[in-house]
Amino acid sequence: MNDAIRSELVIDGRRLSYLDFGGTGRPLLALHGHLSEGAVFAPLAAALGPQWRVIAPDQRGQGDSDRAEDYAREGYLADVEALLDHLGLESVVLLGHSLGAVNAYQFAARHPERVEALVNVEGPAALGLDGSHPLAFLLDLPYDASSRDALVAALGPAAPYFEDRLREGADGSWRLPFHPLDMYASEADVHGNHWADWTATTCPALLVRGTRPGAGAIPDDLAAEMVARRPGTALAELDADHLLITTAADEFHGVVREFLATV
Question: Domain 5-128+179-260 class?
Fold first, then answer.
């Protein structure tokens, strides 16, 4: 597969960047999770080969996309609609991980005619903060620094997770590929009871979850309920953690290929 082409569209003065891995295959739109970006799906695009044209945006405030005024649910969904319109795609298979998975099934609930099938990777139908914020560590992270070395040093123990994705500014400064305060707010906004959205559609769906105790976002009982309450939903369970799209990449690619062959 050819290297991805990076393009962008402007939504209300805000730049939304995306990667198009090309090809003449059927379109699959892939939505990443918090603290990530569209490039995380490059291995998936390669694994799916020419049968699928994978398109992966950097969701608002992440990667090469501009920061947004807010990170509420409807804003994320409007971005997906704008991107599909920009690409001239009437319908796609929609795949999402974590934040992206919730965005995917919520978009499908509002625009069922535009989603041929869903792949929900680690996106619960209901999730709450339970008195603690899972991304609270972000409040201690710097956003930028005068040099790359200075930013890496300031990131401390978090540096290994982000140092290969830092961005250089026109003035020579360096920044994270997201603003910590933005992602803290976004994580809070994604929490809630989303059962009505999860069960609103009838297109084929695949729910992928990691089964390592305490490492995934969807407990056993919730996974069983999500499959039972939404007809046409298959379940794939991997011996992996929440970040299974990278930590169990081969297994993840395999179950997605198997599901897509049925769509």
Answer: alpha beta
Q: How far apart are the first and last CA of the chain?
A: 22
Domains of the chain, residue spans: 5-128+179-260
CA angle (214 as vertex; 208, 215 as ends), nearest 5: 50
Residue 2's pLDDT band (boundaries 50, 70, 90)? low
Instruction: List, as one string, the DSSP characters of 1-64.
Output: -PPPEEEEEEETTEEEEEEE---SSEEEEEE--TT--GGGGHHHHHHHGGGEEEEEE--TTBTT
pLDDT, tens only, 79-104: 999 999 999 999 999 999 999 999 99
d(CA 240, CA 246): 10
Q: Tell me, what's the pLDDT at 1?
A: 44
